[in-house]
Structure formats: C-alpha cells, structure tokens
Design a protein that fits this description.
The protein is of the alpha/beta class and about 425 residues long. About 40% of the residues lie in helices and about 15% in strands. The protein has a seven-stranded mixed sheet, sandwiched between helices. Strands 2-1-3 form a three-stranded parallel sheet, with helices on both faces. A two-stranded parallel ribbon has the order 4-5. Helix 6 crosses helix 7 and helix 12 (about 320-335) packs across helix 13 (about 340-350). This is Branched-chain amino acid transport system substrate-binding protein. InterPro entries: BCAA_transport (IPR051010), Leu-bd (IPR028081), Leu_Ile_Val-bd (IPR000709), Peripla_BP_I (IPR028082).
Length: about 425
C-alpha cells in the first residue's frame, strides 16, 4: 500500500470516528509551500507590521485547516526588517537563497518594499504588495501585484482635493515628512492643487526626526490657507494634531488632513481621542455599511480576539484585512494554475479578478488596482478614552467617493470640531 493510500485510509477512519475536528491535516506531500516576507516588528512602523504578521498567520492557519495548497502544508517565514530599506534586500536574499521560499509577499510599507524591487525584477520573482505606494513606478516589474486599494497619487488623495473644490478652497498649505512615501504623496498632491487652481501659500518638508511642530503650525496659521494637506508618519501625525490643538490652525481652514499615516491605528486614535474631530483623512477600510464586503467583518471579529491575546492593534482596519487578502491572492492563483511558478502565477493574475475579504481585485498593467478604492473619512463625535467607539458606524464617516459615501462633509474645520 502506498503512503498516499495509507493516509487516505487513516483519514477515512478518523472521519468515521468523528475525530476530524481534532485530527491534524494529512498532507499529500511532506514538503511545505513556503511563503516568505518581512515586516517591521520593531521601530516606528511596528504597529502596522505586527498587524500584518498576525493577519498572514491567520490566513496560513485557515488555508491549512482546509488542506493547504496543492496538497501541501503552507508555512509562513517572516523576519523583522525594522521598516528599514537597509534591511529588507538582505532579508529577501535570505528568503530566496537560504530559506528557498516558493512565494513572496513584499515588506510592509513603501520604503522597505521599494528597496527589494530591483532584486525581484532581476530574479523574475512574483511579489504581492503589502500596503505600499508607487513601489513599481521606477522598476516596472511585470510580476508585481499590489494588495493596496490605490494606484497613483490621484487615487490616494484625489478625493481630498475634490472635497476642497466643493467647499470653495482657493489657498492650500502643504506639510510633509522627508520620506519617500510622503514625498511621493506630496508630489501628487501638488499636481492636484495646480489642476484645481489652488494657490500654494505655504510648503514645508521636515526631517523624519522632527518632534516639535509648533513653529510650523504657527507659520501655517499666519499664511491663512483654506486647506491644509499633511503627509506624515504615525509619530508625526500625533505631534502635528496635538500642536494644532494647542495653538489652533485658524478660522480660514475648511479642510485639514489628507495623507496622515497613523490616524488609522488604534493606539494613535485612542491617544488623540476628541482631537481627531473634524479631520479628513484617507483610509482603506472603515466599519461603515457601504464597505461591508463579504467576509471582512467576520475576519475582523476573529482578528480582534487574536490581537487582544497578542497585544496587537485590535481594530486592524487599515492593514489586517489587506494582509489577509494578500494571502487570498496567492491562494486563488496557486489553486487556479496548480503551480507555484512565478511566471504562471503572474500570467493568471494579469488576466483574472480575485475575490478577497476587501472585495474583488483586478490589476492594471503596472500591478496596481485597476479600480482604486481609497476613501476619505471625517472623524465625528469622537470622545476621549473610548476605544470601542471606533468600531461604530458614524464615527469615521465616508465623505468620498460617492459610491461609498455615508455622510456629507462638515466644513469649515472649526464647525466640524464641534460635531
């Protein structure tokens, strides 16, 4: 009797005894399919990186509970890249050459992911994105497929400028971190401002180590813009909003926010509390009725329980569903092709729509979403010291685009802060 036949007989016996729920899966092949990635498990991006790892672990557990892929157990191999572009290339060399992984998911975040793209193109390896922006804009790798719901800067922050036009903005101020992601967003935002006919009355790029924004906020207030666009990282976002709360931004401001990373994270949201009210910012998913994609709320319920036990962001809206979707992208492609070959998988993904818990995804030629789905949300009636409020509808109201809109923009900022 062959090993495979013995395994089949054993599985049948277990099922007959009602032991299927406690039995370990019996694999058709002993060698696992290895999925490799890196993410910030320490450093300033660790809040998102740890969400990402947990979500991917959940996908691996789910797929293995269903029998794995191609009859093989799926194994996740992760390393801490500290969110650093100096770390990620070496890690991916190790994943390919030493760990000999079959499938690759990009590092979490724009900067560390961009650093591995030349290697991925040179080695002709499929790479699924993980919350990165314009990573393939310079490399033009034809085996890149992003899990994130944007394409270019217009898809990311275009809604913010559209809202500005609706409320009669004429003058805009820009504040951005001197980091690749923020500068890419800033460049796109400035182009949109020009197209919208807005006059730039203030622009400042600050070093990533900046902790005191009081002088910049005073300068913005003195410039009296109608709209302030900010492209910042989590620690910056917190400090900037606190400075606005302490100093004030002026009665002329109709819109404030736009491209602030961190306002999607539980720790930052809890820290800022009521200071968030009125701010308009980009998001990938919020618990509004228009974004109830099949399976996403069930996933988040399970994720929350796991996150509590592992001391990870328990909301998980911004990262976790999309990291889980990265696994689903690989899962559907591998099952459809019966292969883990990068060329075959890329060919499939270029031609097919994939169903995920963040909705259906189809890609354009550059590997970005063919139909981007970034939303602009406005914080409303946020109270201090209440973490659970962010799970409620009506706290992060979608104000753009129209197909996901759950409320109208309240403007100016001073009025929105009172609502």
């Amino acid at each position: 009797m062959s090993n495979f036949t013995k395994r089949s007989v054993l599985r049948t016996m277990l099922l007959g005894l009602g032991l299927a729920t406690i039995a370990q899966p019996i694999w058709a092949q002993d060698n696992p399919i290895k999925v490799g990635t890196s993410m910030a498990l320490s450093g300033p991006l660790a809040g998102g990186g740890r969400q990402s790892r947990l979500a991917l672990q959940m996908w691996v557990e789910d797929i293995n509970s269903r029998g794995g892929l191609l009859g093989r157990k799926v194994e996740l191999i992760t390393y801490d890249d500290q969110g650093s572009p100096a770390q990620s290339p070496g890690i991916f060399s190790k994943l390919i050459d030493l760990d000999q992984v079959d499938l690759l998911i990009a590092p979490y975040g724009t900067v560390p992911a961009a650093a591995v793209m030349p290697m991925m193109k040179e080695r002709q390896r499929l790479l699924i994105g993980q919350i990165g922006f314009q990573i393939n804009s310079k490399t033009h790798h034809d085996m890149w497929f992003n899990n994130s719901p944007w394409s270019d800067a217009d898809s990311w922050v275009g809604g913010y400028f559209k809202l500005g036009q609706k409320v009669g903005v004429k003058k805009v101020a820009f504040l951005a971190a001197d980091q690749e992601f923020s500068q890419n967003i800033l460049a796109g935002a400035k182009t949109l401002a020009t197209k919208s006919g807005f006059e730039t009355v203030y622009e400042q790029t600050y070093p990533p180590t900046t902790v005191d924004f009081s002088a910049m906020i005073r300068a913005i207030r003195a410039a009296a813009p109608d709209m302030v666009f900010v492209a910042s990282y989590p620690a910056d976002s917190t400090a900037i909003i606190r400075a606005v709360g302490e100093i004030g931004i002026g009665s002329s401001v109709k819109l404030f926010g736009g491209g602030m990373v961190g306002l999607q994270y539980e720790a930052v949201m809890n820290t800022l509390g009521s200071q968030l009210n009125g701010i308009v910012n980009y998001h990938t998913y919020v618990p509004e009725k228009t974004m109830a994609f099949p399976g996403v709320r069930e996933f988040l319920d399970r994720y929350t329980e796991r996150a509590k036990a592992e001391n990870v962001d328990t909301l998980g809206f911004y990262v976790a569903p999309f990291s889980y979707a990265a696994g689903q992208i690989l899962e559907q492609a591998v099952k459809a092709t019966g292969s883990v070959d990068s060329v075959e998988l890329a060919k499939y993904l270029r031609s097919n729509e994939v169903q995920t818990i963040v909705g259906p995804i189809r890609w354009s030629a550059d590997g970005e979403w063919a139909e981007p789905r970034v939303v602009m949300i406005q914080f409303r009636t946020i109270k201090d010291g209440d973490a659970e409020q962010f799970r409620q509808e009506g706290k992060q109201v979608v104000v753009d685009p129209d197909r996901f809109r759950t409320g109208d923009l309240i403007s100016p900022l001073s009025e929105a802060q009172r609502n």
